[in-house]
């Protein structure tokens, strides 16, 4: 039956650890990261229409381009071309994820629009072609297609599903300052790190998992703090919230996260942190 309207959540991405393990000749960096997704995210809706159009709503609508530069329209056009589609679509994006924030908002939107348009246009695209199309849109788009916990290698295209990870609540916190991904990679001064995938034993219990994560890093937080010192203050503040298990920056920042036993503890932490730091953007959720 022809789809009238297809909706999907575009979940925020979090790098629980991120090691920079090398650099390619073209300047892209090789990564080793455990990537997870939150229950919180943007929302993408596509409906039949003769042309491709985009409308954007939600709290961060004004922070993204609403024309052809928007990743959502770039993704839709790339899919149209790859599959030889002549139909259009009216795309509506509700933007709840902060922008240029290290939580993959644009990548999640691009992945969600690929998935929803494939259903709307009743397309089957070979998985390898879809993944190549996703990677051409951004290094984080392939992992967002699955939106499941995964180890990410290469520049983002080498994905391995992660075993089940213990249930955890998460608090996302953003100081309201955008950080450019290339600028953060460029500001790195330290040497390359090793790959550091977790062993099955390190995933056995929540305590084992948190201990294991504590021995890994986000190699981009040092350069991010050098560019935006507020990120360092935020990490200290998150680490001091009641029952915080781990506080760290995600991706190239500036969003930081803290892990808790459940969402209720994350919500309590959000309340106390919000009182102390009123212009902070805060969102409690669970890891999916
Ligand atoms: C750092 C990460 C970690 O998950 O997340 P974010 O901070 O963006 O959320 C990602 O690798 C980002 O992915 P994404 O944001 O899609 O990157 P792209 O648009 O492809 O690349 C933007 C720029 O970042 C740098 N870049 C990106 C990925 C990578 N593996 N090495 C790099 O050096 C390059 O300078 C590139 O020109
Ligand atoms: N739909 C979109 N959502 C977010 N950012 C977008 C979108 N389309 C284009 N952009 C641009 O992509 C850049 C990266 O944004 P984002 O994906 O939020 O960053 P990050 O990967 O660091 O979380 C920003 O400069 C933004 O203007």
Automatic annotation (TrEMBL):
InterPro entries: GHMP_kinase_C_dom, GHMP_kinase_C_sf, GHMP_kinase_N_dom, IspE, Ribosomal_Su5_D2-typ_SF, Ribsml_uS5_D2-typ_fold_subgr. The active site is at 13, 140. Transmembrane segments: none annotated. GO terms for molecular function: 4-(cytidine 5'-diphospho)-2-C-methyl-D-erythritol kinase activity; ATP binding. Residues 70-145 form the GHMP kinase N-terminal domain. It comes from the Bacteria. Pathway: Isoprenoid biosynthesis; isopentenyl diphosphate biosynthesis via DXP pathway; isopentenyl diphosphate from 1-deoxy-D-xylulose 5-phosphate: step 3/6. It catalyses: 4-CDP-2-C-methyl-D-erythritol + ATP = 4-CDP-2-C-methyl-D-erythritol 2-phosphate + ADP + H(+). Belongs to the GHMP kinase family. IspE subfamily. This is 4-diphosphocytidyl-2-C-methyl-D-erythritol kinase. It comes from Aestuariispira insulae.
């Amino acid at each position: 039956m022809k789809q009238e309207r297809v909706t999907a959540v575009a979940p925020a991405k979090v790098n629980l650890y991120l090691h920079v393990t090398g650099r390619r000749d073209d300047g892209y960096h090789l990564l080793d990261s455990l990537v997870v997704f939150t229950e919180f995210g943007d929302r993408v809706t596509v409906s039949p229409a003769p042309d491709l159009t985009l409308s954007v709503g939600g709290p961060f609508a004004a922070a993204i381009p609403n024309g052809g530069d928007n990743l959502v329209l770039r993704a839709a056009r790339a899919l149209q071309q790859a599959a030889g589609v002549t139909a259009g679509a009216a795309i509506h994006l509700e933007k709840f994820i902060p922008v240029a924030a290290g939580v993959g908002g644009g990548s999640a939107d691009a992945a969600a629009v690929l998935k929803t348009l494939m259903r709307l246009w009743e397309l089957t695209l070979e998985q390898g072609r879809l993944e190549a199309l996703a990677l051409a849109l951004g290094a984080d788009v392939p992992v967002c297609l699955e939106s499941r916990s995964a180890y990410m290698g290469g520049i983002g295209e080498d994905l391995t599903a992660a075993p089940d990870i213990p249930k955890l609540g998460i608090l996302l916190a953003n100081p309201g300052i955008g950080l450019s991904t290339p600028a953060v990679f460029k500001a790195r001064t330290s040497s390359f790190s090793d790959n550091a995938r977790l062993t099955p034993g390190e995933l056995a219990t929540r305590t084992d998992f948190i201990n294991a994560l504590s021995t890994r890093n986000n190699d981009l937080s040092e350069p991010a703090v050098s560019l935006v010192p507020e990120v360092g203050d935020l990490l200290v503040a998150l680490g001091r919230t009641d029952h915080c298990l781990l506080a760290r920056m995600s991706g190239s920042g500036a969003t930081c996260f803290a892990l808790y036993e459940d969402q209720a503890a994350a919500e309590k932490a959000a309340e106390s942190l919000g009182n102390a730091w009123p212009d902070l953007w805060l969102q409690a959720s669970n890891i999916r």
